[in-house]
Amino acid sequence: MIRVKDPITLLKIITRFIDRQIGVTHVAVLLYEKKQNAYVLIDSKGDGGTKIPVGYVKVSGENPIINFFQNSNNGAFARKEALVYKELDHVRNFEILVNKKEGRAIHYEDIKKHMTYLRAAICIPSFYKRELIGVLILGDKLSGEPYYDPEISLFVTLANDVAMAVKNAELIKDLKTSFDREHQLFIQTSIALAAAIDARDRYTHGHSERVSHYSLVIAKEMVDVGKMEYDRQFLETLQLSALLHDVGKIGIRDQILNKPAKLTDEEFEVMKTHVMIGANIVKPVGGLSQLADGILYHHERWDGKGYPHGLKGKDIPLIGRIVNVSDSYDTITTARAYKKAAPPAEAFEELMKCSGNQFDPEIVELFFQAWKKGKITKRDYINLDFLRIH
Amino acid sequence: MTKKPRLLVVDNEIDVCNFVKSFFEIRGFDVVTAYNGDEALKVLDAAKVDLVILDVVMRRDDEGIEYLPQIKKKCPSAKVIIITGVDDKETVEKAKKLGADDYITKPLVLEYLESTVMGKIKSLSPSA
After folding, report:
1. Which chain B residues are within 8 Å of A58, Cβ to Cβ?
2. Window 42-61 of A, Cβ < 8 Å to B
3. Is residue B128 one of the residues assigned to a domain?
4. Count of domains in chain B?
5. Which end of chain A has less neighbouring CB within 10 Å, N or C?
6. A62 touches chain B (CB under 8 A)
7. Which CATH number characterizes residue B28's domain?
């Protein structure tokens, strides 16, 4: 089988090959288009008025040529794999091909008429299994000679290769589309969930989305400076994990979550449970093993004084160390009940101060570098296509 | 009919002009072509035609549809069939108001193009 990524390219190669090797008045290809529910002329090669302009002409499923091929298995006609105009000359006008299933008749006279429309000396169907994908149309040979059987056999082989290539490309596209759609749906569901959490606190509107954005900025910087290999799965997990880092707050009482004053020790202990609650919420999400890590470990500290496990340094999973920094950055740069929003420069000063005790110094530095390069955008974090970041 | 019916094809694409020209020449038409609206008007200055096939999705600065009233003015007896893109009902309505007799959407079915043109020619000369 011929392997070409883009089936249209393959079609063009084939039409040019035939045009050059055999020398015909014109070559054209009709290809089935779902959107039009018709066979549209997608490539054409030939001189002057013989060339049918691409995209100008279509042929419906009712066309007798198409009909003939679609039903050729039921026919009594000698040659099923191709229609040769000259052979039709010998078929008497009243002879018909009956499509038994639908009780319709196809007149050879009609087929001839439509072949003259397309100026076709021969029409070769392109089948994938029993599905008619397209039709290869050849005009007369420039030499005036008839088409010989071995030539027709070659065309039939080429046409079937084309069908295979077209179908494969279609299947891959369908698969990719449905994957993208599901992925998008998953991300959007997560955004909705994150927004629901943020909505409980009037000061944290958009917090989760921003933390997700900052986390990706850090990860991209790590990739850019060679600290980390590009890893799509990791980026996807990080994006989601950061988005859902506070999902556990769903289980925290309003009096504690929205308390305008400092929390008591007891209340703070309750507040701390949000990381465990959150990690447990996302555990059933299969496929992304580290998803819970960003949630569970985003309050661990580099010096080991964080929670829930008091992990130290690089014992804290990277994803947790990243979300920790971006979460703090957003808290500093946005207003709270008890404080005003600080500008980024001030926020980085504060992050630097806590670098090495609260935060992983390397991550703070990378984040700072990314900010200096203008990588942190102020735009609304709506477009969550993590692939675009690289 | 003693005289060959005369057809004017207006399209930016040379391939379309050539193809439609030879398609109708085989069917006994006298076909002239124009690549834009200005050229079409010049053709009409030289001689009358029976039918005009006008592409209204021309890519140059002049949109084909804007030439419709002038074409109709220069050659009132000519039937005008416009070729339009799919899902372009607005253009079709506008063209009809400006005097188009019929429309065909691209990509087109050749049989339909032929029957539409033949039908219009017949309506022009009921005696033939």
Report:
1. 107-109
2. 44, 48-60
3. no
4. 1
5. N
6. no
7. 3.40.50.2300
